[in-house]
Specification:
Helix content is 28%, strand content 21%. The chain is α+β, with helices and mostly antiparallel strands and 584 residues long. The chain folds into two domains: 204 residues, no CATH class; 237 residues, Periplasmic binding protein-like II (D-Maltodextrin-Binding Protein, domain 2, 3-Layer(aba) Sandwich). The longest helix is centred in the N-terminal third of the chain and has 18 residues. The radius of gyration is 25 Å and the shape is globular.
C-alpha cells in the first residue's frame, strides 16, 4: 500500500539500527502467523500495516478474509492464531470489558481457560489486602481470573470494586493476548434532511423518531447480513441496532429534549429502587404497562420475561451473553430468581447491588421472547415466524440484500413512532455504501472507504459524522496457538515465553500512524483495553489510571516519541526466542 510505504521504511530503519553491530541470537525461526479479519477496506488496511510492520522485524504474517458470520464463529471456536477484534461497551461500567474474558464466557475469543490453557497453573491472585481471604498461587485461569470477576460483581464497596477491576485488567494485559490499537469513534454519514436521529454511546442507532422530508421511509446500511436477530444470541452492534427497533425491554435508551441520553422505563411503568434484603440480596419489583402486546396481537405478560431470561442462560442455547445474567440470584443453579407475581408484575432478586442494573435491563439480551414462538429453532430467520414487541416488525428479508422493518401497530407507543418504514440494506462494501449515499438512495451509511475520508470531511462537513463511542479496536491472540514450534519449552515456561513474545510484538505497531493515516476518524491510540469514557468513583478516567506507570498513560507508552524505543525493546525481546531476518 502506498500510504504505508513511508512508515514501513522508517520501521525497517529502526529495526536495522537495533540490530546494527549485534550478532543475531541463535534460536528458532518465527512461525508464520495468519491474521484473520472480516470483509472491510478499513480492517484490511490495518491488517496490511500490521503485516508490513512484522515483516520489517523478520516475522511473516499472512492474511485471511472471511465474511462476517463465518469470521465471528471462527474466532469464537478458537480456530485462528491472531485476529482483528473490537469491543464496544454493553453498558457504561468497566466490568463489561472484563467479564467477557472469564473461562465460561461466550465472548472469550482468546480462549482463556479453554482447551490446553484450562490446565495451565500459572496465575496468582491475592485479595487479602482488599479484605478478602482469597489467596491463590499458581492457579488456573478459572481459579484466579474467574474468581476475581465474581468477587468484583459481588463487591458493594465501589472504591474497592474499581481497584479490583484495575487488577483484572492488569491480569489481562500481562498475558499479551490483547493488543489494543485505538479507542473507537463512531463514524457514519447521514443525510442532512434526516431529523430526530440519535445514537447511543454503545453505537446503537435509533430511527423510530426520525423524519425524512415528506417520506415515510428511510433507507440505511449498517453492515452485512446479521449473524442472528435472536435477542439472546446476538453479540454484534449492527444486530443490536436492529433489535432495539424490533423489541422493547423493561427499560430503554432515550434522548431527552436537551440531547442528553438516559435510561428510561419502557415496558415497565417505572424503574423503582431495589429493596435490600437481610442477606444482602436486592429485590426489584416492576409493574408492566397496560396494553402490552406482541406483534401478532397476543398479550405480553410478565411470564414472557421470566421465560426469556431463563432461556438465555440455558446451556443448550449457548448464548454468548448468558453470563450477563450472573448478577441475578440463582444463576449458578441454572434457574434465575425471577418471578411473574401476576401477568403484570415481575419480581427479580439480584445477588447484590450493582450500579448498572438499569442499563442491563435496556440491553437486547434482556428483551422478552415468547415460548411458543422460539420453540421453532428457525423463528428468527423468516419474517413469517418473527414475532416481536417493539416499534417495528420484520416484514421483509431478502437475505444478504435487504431487511424491511415496518411500523408495528400493536406497539404500546406506536403513536410516537414517526418513521413508518426502515429499509436496512445489507452490505460490507464501503465503496458501494458511499455510492448509494452520494446518489441519494441511502440516507445513512455506517462505513466509508478509508481512502475517501479526507475528501468526505471536506466535501460533506455536515453529513460526515464522528461521534463518541465507548469501545476499543484491538488484535487478539489465541492463547492456545503455538508461537514456539520446536522449542524445548513446555507448559508454564512456554506460556510465559509466549506472553513475552506477544507483548513485544505489540510494541512494533505505531498506533498514531494507524489513527492518523489509516483510520482517520479521530480515534485515540490505545494503551489499555478498557476504553475511554469509563470513569473511576473519583471521576478520573479509568483508562488514565490503568497500568500504574509514571510518565505515560496505560500499559505502554504509545506516544510518537516513544516509538523508536518501543521497537528497539521489542527486537531485543524477540531475539531471545527467534532468529530474525531483520530488514535493513
Amino acid at each position: 500500500m502506498k500510504k504505508t510505504l513511508a512508515l514501513i521504511l522508517a520501521v525497517a530503519m529502526l529495526l536495522g539500527m537495533a540490530a546494527c553491530g549485534k550478532p543475531k541470537t541463535t534460536g528458532t525461526n518465527p512461525p508464520t502467523l495468519k491474521y484473520l479479519y472480516n470483509t472491510s477496506e478499513g480492517h484490511k488496511a490495518i491488517g496490511e500495516y500490521l503485516q508490513a510492520a512484522l515483516k520489517a522485524a523478520g516475522i511473516t504474517m499472512t492474511m485471511e478474509n472471511q465474511d462476517w458470520a463465518t469470521f465471528l464463529n471462527t474466532r469464537k471456536d478458537g480456530n485462528y492464531d491472531v485476529a482483528r477484534n473490537g469491543w464496544v461497551a454493553d453498558y457504561t461500567d468497566p466490568i463489561c470489558f472484563l467479564d467477557m474474558w472469564t473461562s465460561y464466557s461466550g465472548n472469550n475469543d482468546v480462549q482463556f481457560g479453554k482447551g490446553d490453557h484450562a490446565k495451565l497453573k500459572m496465575y496468582s491472585l491475592d485479595l487479602t489486602s482488599y479484605g478478602y481471604e482469597t489467596k491463590v498461587t499458581d492457579g488456573t485461569w478459572a481459579e484466579t481470573y474467574d474468581v476475581l470477576i465474581s468477587t468484583i460483581k459481588s463487591c458493594t464497596d465501589n472504591v474497592k470494586r474499581y481497584q479490583l477491576m484495575h487488577l483484572a485488567e492488569d491480569m489481562l494485559m500481562a498475558t499479551g493476548c490483547i493488543t489494543p490499537l485505538y479507542y473507537y469513534t463512531d463514524l457514519y454519514m447521514i443525510d442532512s434532511n434526516v431529523k430526530g436521529f440519535f445514537s447511543s454511546p454503545l453505537g446503537y442507532k435509533y430511527f423510530m423518531n426520525c423524519t425524512y422530508g415528506t417520506s415515510d421511509s428511510i433507507s440505511v446500511c449498517l453492515a452485512s447480513e446479521p449473524d442472528t436477530i435472536d435477542p439472546a444470541l446476538n453479540s454484534a452492534v449492527d444486530g443490536a441496532t436492529l433489535l432495539v427497533h424490533l423489541f422493547s425491554g423493561i427499560a430503554k435508551w432515550d434522548q431527552a429534549d436537551d440531547g442528553s441520553l438516559q435510561i428510561v422505563a419502557d415496558c415497565a411503568t417505572s424503574l423503582p429502587e431495589g429493596v435490600v434484603n437481610s442477606d444482602g440480596t436486592v429485590t426489584y419489583t416492576y409493574t408492566l404497562r397496560d396494553g402490552l402486546k406482541w406483534s401478532d396481537g397476543a398479550a405480553l405478560t410478565a411470564n414472557d420475561f421470566v421465560y426469556a431470561w431463563n432461556r438465555a442462560i440455558d446451556k443448550e442455547l449457548a448464548a454468548d451473553y448468558e453470563y450477563m445474567f450472573e448478577v441475578i440470584k440463582g444463576y449458578d443453579e441454572g434457574k434465575l430468581a425471577v418471578e411473574a407475581v401476576d401477568e403484570k408484575t415481575l419480581k427479580v432478586t439480584l445477588s447484590s447491588a450493582i450500579s448498572y442494573w438499569n442499563e442491563l435491563l435496556a440491553f437486547p439480551t434482556y428483551f422478552p421472547v415468547r415460548e411458543d414462538v422460539v420453540k421453532n429453532e428457525s423463528w428468527a430467520t423468516d419474517p413469517a415466524t418473527y414475532v416481536c414487541n417493539g416499534p417495528y416488525t420484520l416484514t421483509g428479508w431478502n437475505h444478504d440484500s435487504l431487511m424491511t422493518l415496518t411500523k408495528n401497530p400493536n406497539y404500546i407507543d406506536a403513536a410516537s413512532v414517526t418513521m413508518g418504514e426502515i429499509k436496512c440494506y445489507l452490505s460490507d462494501d464501503s465503496n458501494n455504501m458511499l455510492t448509494n449515499f452520494k446518489n441519494g438512495s441511502w440516507q445513512l451509511i455506517d462505513d466509508v472507504p478509508t481512502n475517501e475520508i479526507a475528501t468526505l470531511k471536506k466535501d460533506y462537513p455536515q453529513q460526515f459524522v464522528v461521534a463518541g463511542q465507548i469501545g476499543t479496536y484491538y488484535v487478539c491472540w489465541n492463547v492456545n496457538s503455538d508461537l514456539l514450534p520446536g522449542s524445548s519449552l513446555t507448559g508454564v515456561e512456554k506460556e510465559k515465553a509466549q506472553q513475552e513474545i506477544r507483548n513485544a510484538i505489540s510494541l512494533l505497531f505505531d498506533r498514531n500512524y494507524i489513527c492518523e493515516k489509516i483510520a482517520q476518524a479521530g480515534q485515540v491510540p490505545a494503551s489499555s483495553f478498557v476504553a475511554m469514557g469509563m470513569v473511576n468513583p473519583d471521576n478520573t478516567e479509568f483508562y488514565k489510571t490503568a497500568g500504574h506507570n509514571s510518565g505515560f498513560v496505560g500499559y505502554y507508552d504509545v506516544s510518537s516519541n516513544a516509538f523508536e524505543a518501543n521497537v528497539n525493546a521489542a527486537i531485543e525481546t524477540l531475539k531471545k526466542y527467534y532468529t530474525l531476518d531483520i530488514q535493513q
